[in-house]
Amino acid sequence: MASNKPHINIVFIGHVDHGKSTTVGRVLFDSGVVDEQAMRKLKEKAEQLGKGGFEFAFVMDNLKEEQERGVTIDLNHKKFETDKYYFTIIDAPGHRDFVKNMITGASQADAAVLVVAANDGVNAQTREHVFLSKTLGVAQLIVGINKMDISGVDWAEARYNKVKEEVSALLKQVGYKLDEVQFVPMASLKGDNVVKKSEGNLPWYNGPTLLDAMNALKEPEKPVNLALRLPIQDVYSITGIGVVPVGRVETGVMKLGDKIVAVPGREGKGVPGEVKSIEMHHEQLKEATPGDNVGFNVRGFGKKDVARGDVIGHPANLPSVVSEFTAQVVILNHPSVVTVGYAPVFHIHTAQIACQVTEIVEKKDPATGQTLEKNPSFVKNGDIAIIKFKPVQALVMEKNAEFPQLARFAIRDSGKTVAAGMCIDIVKKA
């Protein structure tokens, strides 16, 4: 039966090899979601592949290729419950090639656990993931300072404090309020302070375990009173059932029997349908509310009618298809400069669409938000700017003031996240 506890989507982020997957595996094993027998099999498999110590990571990394390479490629969803919450854990790749999936993960998450290795401190991906999480609207953060057991760290409080300071400086810079961030020292491989308190290795620490910190998160507000917006992540064709789109409800409520429309849809005119069934984690639901990752069967949808990036709404309040939009953008990591005519790929909700810069309206001071320059000819790394864009194909996007869930995006170019931002104004397509 579906849980009646509040649901939180939580993403594990951080630099490659800092122990995200191992932390997730440890959480699931120590809280009894993964049993001893399954764990023993994974341990044997890890040793066969010459990856002893990777068995906890294998809990999430169950794709064969990932086990051989020892890196997380895809986003994995696992559910587990505490006495207080029902969590969907999204394990996000730290590896640079896979930032694209990490963006999809962070844009679905209510909270994040940032894993930072005590011996290594803040790294390139640590910065990028923190920046993206903030820009993509991940409001709550827990920092797990991992590998406290490693040689050279040896459970030292001084090292923990140094890494905590480094991370705090980074969080402050991007606008997280430090008094709302929980810091936890831990050793995921050994299991210290993840689910169970450390047995004497951290005598100087009397704060929460990672699990306690997760239980102390605030319940996310559910925007049920907004209109329905459900971006489609995948579309399956299931024999005997029909077309089953899958995605997460961002706002509003979708009920059995609802008349819905997918926009823009294949022809760009919207595809109408009626909801025949809704299911989450193999259980039938009567309705889906914000935060629910659901599969739903729709009378009227053909296999070719809808695709990833389309957004479901009700006929009375359709999602906005834009012909152009204005956004506030942070340039993070661009090899040169951004000018009019530049057309990178936008990752917004589940859509990936190239959008062209048509005008750089103004450059802002990152510290104060004041205008520094009107219509600059270019912007570069570190700049915050108001920019107008034109999507090269139909794109659903909403204003941050109305539907922040469908306003945040990341911009990628040749394998890197070059910028991130949010939409502040739109021109609807005729």
Any overview of this molecule?
The structure is a single chain. The chain is of the alpha+beta class and 430 residues long. It is built from eight helices and 23 strands. It folds into three domains: 7-215, Rossmann fold (3-Layer(aba) Sandwich), CATH 3.40.50; 230-313, Translation factors (Elongation Factor Tu (Ef-tu), domain 3, Beta Barrel), CATH 2.40.30; 321-428, Translation factors (Elongation Factor Tu (Ef-tu), domain 3, Beta Barrel), CATH 2.40.30. Strands 2-3-1-4-5-6 form a six-stranded mixed sheet, with helices on both faces. A hairpin with a 2-residue loop joins strand 22 and strand 23.
Give a brief outline of the structure.
It is built from eight helices and 23 strands. It is of the alpha+beta class and 430 residues long.
